[in-house]
Each structure stands twice: as C-alpha cells, then as structure tokens.
Here is the input.
Amino acid sequence: VSAEKTIGITAPAALISLTTPVTFNPGSATAGNSTITGTGPVTADGVATSTVTITLLDALSNPVPGVTPTFSATDTGSTNVYSACSSTNSSGVSTCTVKSTKAETKTLTITSPVVKIGGTVSFVAGAVSAGTSTLVASPTSLTADGVASSTLTVTVKDAQGNPISGQTVTLSATGSGNTLTQPSFTTDANGVATGSIVSTV
Here is the structure.
C-alpha cells in the first residue's frame, strides 16, 4: 500500500516549520510472496463454485493494490468455468470463482501479473443418478443349471457422469430359482461393484 511520509527539519531551529510529503509505493508483485488458495470440497455439478483468493505482495511483502490478476486450474476435459477476478484491494487481495462438472482435485495457478502455482481445490461427485449409472450382465444368455453364472457389473455415477465410490449396491432379480451373490464391497474409485446370478429356472 502506498504510504505518505511527512519529511521535516529538526535543525536549525528556524527551519523546523518546513515540511514536505513523500509517497512510498509498493513494488511489482512477486511470485515468491504472492499466494492463491481455493475453498472446497465443491460438488462437481457445474453450479457450485469454489472461491479463489489471490494475494499479491511485492518483494518486501507490501500488498499490491489496484491490479486485476488472472488464474487457471488444472482441468480434465475442459470442464472449468471461471469468473473474472476483482481488482486487488488495499491488502493486495482479489477474489474470483471456478466451477466444474469434473470430479477431481484441481491445482490453482496465478497466471498474471506473476506466475505462481498454489493450492488445490477438490471437486467431488454429486448424488447418484439413474440416468448415467449402468447395470450390465455378462453373459446375457446361459444355461439354467444352477451352475452357469452371469456377472453383474454396476457402475454408479452422478448426473455429470462422475463415478461415485463408497456406495453400497444391492441387487434383485425377478422370477424363481435364482441365487444372487451380492457385491462384497462398496463401489470402487471407478464407481464399480460386481455381483453374480445363477438360476435353475
């Protein structure tokens, strides 16, 4: 921040009343002292936003006001949407936002007026969606001998197609003579859980 200092004379006494102002301004922002952080976790639904805070400081850690920075975040599939950053205030602070439809951890980078890699923001999957989740049987035709088995693969995803881990999946089947083997674990990192079915009918 600019600081105005009043310069005076202490001797000789006859000149004590003479003063003049001198203004000291901050230098340019430096990457070493500037920072970028984001809030999270954030749902990757294309609506919820992470608030990104950029602080610009000069080489002596003086805040640099009146500068509009830009930033980026790592992005798989070009799913990020950014808001324009505000001009830095008297503390050298600017705020912006980022939203995405891709569930992943994104690394934030100031791209101007300096280049500085900073913190991360975690975007997480939303609620389970029947529209994007799948149930696949393989094979789909087999002998009803109580031995031949069809593997049932469930992939659980949110509305944006992001896989959801840690979900308990319970299977059912119509008709009689069925022996269902339920998935033994919750969905994995790819949103997948598997079971199986044999039947005598």
